[in-house]
């Protein structure tokens, strides 16, 4: 049986017709946000790995965090930090006044539960990193997050911001995207920020490619109770044609084809990405 396209499968999930790519009325940032000194300091903190710093050219962390208006005093939850690329920036940034919480891969899943080995490995590595640098990271902590099995992100109305970077496709494949959005809504304070960066699809693309349709993600977030207040093209990449043999993982940093056409994909760079800022709108 042919796989459902991304548009068809998510339209079924959220109970709306598959949307077009016509953008709704919301503010679109025409220029990158100004990066404040505290964010700049976090970008150059000594806990960052050199290999991660090299990828700033693709991920624009200073402009992205400034666009989301993340404050040093925030209580912030990052969903599935993975290898800790953003954790190396966010945890030091929030160390003095705020609180960084990693909604991490479950490093100790129940016996008999089938879990990809890389998730356990990365989950343990991030927990260890947070513990080993606890003297520099303030209240930084970790909780297990494994939708749809584990979806709680903390006490209701306790977080100022929740951020997720290139994870929505994983939860969509697991059929858990609605539950994730509901959990984010619950943990955020009224008016709190939900920041999303995700690989951006063309119409009709399959879930297996790793790309997601921007308008569908907006519709799903709005169904959960969020209001889209702004979008940014800071993480856009017009070189990304999105028709690669191994989906988004054909591009760096994964480079799933190995040496085959490596120079071509390095020249394209990392994927074209949507950058969306939502706020929690209190439900009537």
Automatic annotation (TrEMBL):
InterPro entries the record matches: S-AdoMet-dep_MeTrfase_Alr7345, SAM-dependent_MTases_sf
Signal peptide from the UniProt entry: 1-29
Record GO biological process: methylation
Alphabetized Gene3D superfamilies for the sequence: Vaccinia Virus protein VP39
Key words of the record: Methyltransferase, Signal, Transferase
A GO term, aspect molecular function: methyltransferase activity
Name of the protein in question: Methyltransferase
């Amino acid at each position: 049986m042919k796989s459902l396209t991304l548009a068809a499968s998510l339209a079924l999930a959220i109970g709306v017709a598959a949307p077009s790519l016509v953008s709704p009325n919301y503010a679109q940032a025409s220029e990158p946000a100004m990066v404040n000194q505290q964010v700049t300091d976090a970008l150059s903190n000594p806990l960052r790995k050199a290999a991660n710093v090299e990828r700033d050219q693709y991920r624009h962390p200073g402009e992205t965090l400034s666009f989301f208006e993340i404050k040093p005093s925030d209580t912030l939850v990052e969903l599935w930090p993975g290898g800790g690329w953003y954790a190396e920036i966010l945890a030091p940034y929030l160390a003095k006044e705020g609180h960084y919480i990693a909604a991490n891969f479950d490093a100790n899943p129940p016996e008999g539960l089938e879990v990809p080995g890389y998730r356990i490995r990365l989950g343990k590595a991030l927990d260890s990193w947070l513990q080993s640098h606890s003297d520099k990271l303030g209240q930084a902590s970790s909780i297990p997050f494994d939708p749809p099995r584990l979806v709680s992100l903390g006490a209701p109305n306790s977080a100022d911001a929740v951020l997720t970077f290139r994870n929505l496709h994983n939860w969509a494949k697991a059929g858990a995207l609605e539950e994730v959005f509901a959990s984010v809504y619950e943990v955020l304070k009224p008016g709190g920020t939900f920041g999303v960066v995700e690989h951006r699809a063309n119409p009709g693309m399959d879930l297996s490619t790793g790309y997601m349709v921007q308008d569908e993600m907006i519709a799903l977030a709005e169904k959960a109770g969020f209001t889209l207040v702004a979008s940014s093209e800071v993480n856009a990449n017009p070189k990304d044609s999105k028709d690669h043999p191994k989906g988004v993982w054909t591009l760096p940093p994964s480079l799933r084809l190995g040496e085959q056409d490596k120079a071509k994909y390095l020249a394209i760079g990392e994927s074209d990405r949507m950058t969306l800022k939502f706020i929690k709108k209190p439900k009537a």
